[in-house]
Amino acid sequence: NKSIKIMLKQITNYDGLVVRSATKVTAEVISAGSNLKIIGRAGTGVDNVDVEADVFIIFMNYSFNGNTISAAELTCALLMSLSRHIPQAVISMKDGKWDRKKFMGAELYGKVLGIVGLGRIGKEVATRMQSFGMKTIGYDPITPPEVSASWGVEQMSLEELWPQCDYITVHTPLMPSTTGLLNDTSFAKCKKGVKVVNCARGGIIDEAALLRALESGQCGGAGLDVFVEEPPKDRALVNHPNVISCPHLGASTKEAQARCGKEIALQIVDMATGKALVGAVNAQVLVSSFSPDSHQWILLGESMGRVLKACTASKEPFSQVHVTSLGESLKKSTGFLSSAAVVGLLTEGPQKGPNLVNALPLAAETGITVQTDHKDNECEACVLEVSVNSRSYKAVGSVQAGVPVLLELNGSVFRQPVPLTGHLLFFKAANSTELLLSVTGVLAAAGVELQSYSASTAGSGEQWYCMGISSLLGDIGALKSLVKEAAQLTV
Ligand SMILES: NC(=O)C1=CN([C@@H]2O[C@H](COP(=O)(O)OP(=O)(O)OC[C@H]3O[C@@H](n4cnc5c(N)ncnc54)[C@H](O)[C@@H]3O)[C@@H](O)[C@H]2O)C=CC1
Ligand SMILES: O=C(O)C(=O)COP(=O)(O)O
């Protein structure tokens, strides 16, 4: 369709894409987006995006209640319209008629409403329809019965629910387990004349079965906001006299659009600035790992990866990466620590932007084996070991007072933990009293200020130094040779 053609032409210029439901983000669009890093859905349903197409792209939908109230209000409006035939009466009035007999309705008061899917919208529909005096019953495999009972919905199995309902409304995502939830068999178990509403996704109520139930009178009316094909080419349902329908208007209010747009924009900014990862559909493990506490451990993993990458100074790819988390509280963190370390190791490499979602698949694709381990030590720390060309390198780090610090490099323990923030200059050299003076001298002459300094004990024969510096001199190569000269380094 038109939007796909436009996207295929332009998508390569963009790092991010935000869509509503009508825009189909196909595998073809995703592969054309060579710079694409994130796809945001300003809404709930994610069925218009091929989530599986690229593991390198973070895909998120809004995670709060952006369009919940709007979709719930439209559902309630359809339930009321079904009970009093309002749309049909409006058309008849516009036709110049005054037909009071034809539009005899029924009260909602005292009737039973079955709600399938007791998430955000299901809950809001329930509480609103209770104010009309409806009895609300429902089913949801995840929402606990005591939770839904606290907002007035008694849960039961679908088998028990179907025969009790005067009205049924569905509020689930569309997935294999919900496709055709209302079909010939379930319609047959319902009360004759049951009225149904679908403001969720086309196909949750099987369209062919619905048409058959309407024609036989088993279904007394349907309110449809969504269709399997949108817009529907087959108009049999839309044209049925007992069907009232809308062109997918559930979220089409000024308020919902403003909220969804703002929420998804903020989520993307939070992710891009490393503040939080909220609403990611294809990175659930990472979502839970983005708590303020784990954030510093993620920064530690990335920084340690960068330090070891710089240390190896080799163009050869790593063959093995081993990440060990130490300490009871890091038991569940090994996964994101290893992803973070791989991000650091691959940054500035030839691969397309490594991030926490794609790091491990990217490593596998590059032929790097990543192993993880956990030990219940008393102290909390992360140990990163990498092998390049049969040589191995090792760093040990931790988070102290909320700051990621390096404790040990290649067997040499730093006398003071090295805070892994800002610009850091690592070098190894033979121990000499003049060393600090001569290195700071050349740096000062080049306009670089020394902000911190740590030295390691000469553990396994290597003595490491780390200097926090004010700037990078623009050219890192020039800085390196200055320091090499000053310190008479061998590496
Ligand atoms: N017409 C429109 O414009 C709009 C449509 N929607 C659609 O409405 C639906 C519901 O949205 P939300 O309430 O925000 O989602 P939600 O994620 O808050 O709730 C969905 C609920 O369905 C439940 N569920 C999953 N499988 C089920 C099954 N087999 N049987 C019964 N329940 C099941 C889940 O446990 C969850 O509680 C989604 O399909 C969404 O795409 C949402 C907003 C606007
Ligand atoms: O959020 C949803 O699932 C919707 O169906 C709303 O879709 P829309 O953003 O209005 O195209």
TrEMBL record:
<dbReference type="InterPro" id="IPR045626">
    <property type="entry name" value="PGDH_ASB_dom"/>
</dbReference>
<dbReference type="GO" id="GO:0006564">
    <property type="term" value="P:L-serine biosynthetic process"/>
</dbReference>
<comment type="similarity">
    <text>Belongs to the D-isomer specific 2-hydroxyacid dehydrogenase family.</text>
</comment>
<dbReference type="Pfam" id="PF02826">
    <property type="entry name" value="2-Hacid_dh_C"/>
</dbReference>
<dbReference type="GO" id="GO:0051287">
    <property type="term" value="F:NAD binding"/>
</dbReference>
<dbReference type="Pfam" id="PF00389">
    <property type="entry name" value="2-Hacid_dh"/>
</dbReference>
<dbReference type="Pfam" id="PF19304">
    <property type="entry name" value="PGDH_inter"/>
</dbReference>
<keyword id="KW-0560">Oxidoreductase</keyword>
<keyword id="KW-0520">NAD</keyword>
<keyword id="KW-0597">Phosphoprotein</keyword>
<dbReference type="InterPro" id="IPR036291">
    <property type="entry name" value="NAD(P)-bd_dom_sf"/>
</dbReference>
<feature type="domain" description="D-3-phosphoglycerate dehydrogenase ASB">
    <location>
        <begin position="296"/>
        <end position="392"/>
    </location>
</feature>
<comment type="pathway">
    <text>Amino-acid biosynthesis; L-serine biosynthesis; L-serine from 3-phospho-D-glycerate: step 1/3.</text>
</comment>
<keyword id="KW-0028">Amino-acid biosynthesis</keyword>
<dbReference type="InterPro" id="IPR029009">
    <property type="entry name" value="ASB_dom_sf"/>
</dbReference>
<keyword id="KW-0007">Acetylation</keyword>
<dbReference type="InterPro" id="IPR029752">
    <property type="entry name" value="D-isomer_DH_CS1"/>
</dbReference>
<feature type="domain" description="D-isomer specific 2-hydroxyacid dehydrogenase NAD-binding">
    <location>
        <begin position="77"/>
        <end position="250"/>
    </location>
</feature>
<comment type="subunit">
    <text>Homotetramer.</text>
</comment>
<dbReference type="InterPro" id="IPR006139">
    <property type="entry name" value="D-isomer_2_OHA_DH_cat_dom"/>
</dbReference>
<dbReference type="GO" id="GO:0004617">
    <property type="term" value="F:phosphoglycerate dehydrogenase activity"/>
</dbReference>
<keyword id="KW-0718">Serine biosynthesis</keyword>
<dbReference type="InterPro" id="IPR006140">
    <property type="entry name" value="D-isomer_DH_NAD-bd"/>
</dbReference>
<feature type="domain" description="D-isomer specific 2-hydroxyacid dehydrogenase catalytic">
    <location>
        <begin position="6"/>
        <end position="282"/>
    </location>
</feature>
<protein>
    <recommendedName>
        <fullName>D-3-phosphoglycerate dehydrogenase</fullName>
        <ecNumber>1.1.1.95</ecNumber>
    </recommendedName>
</protein>
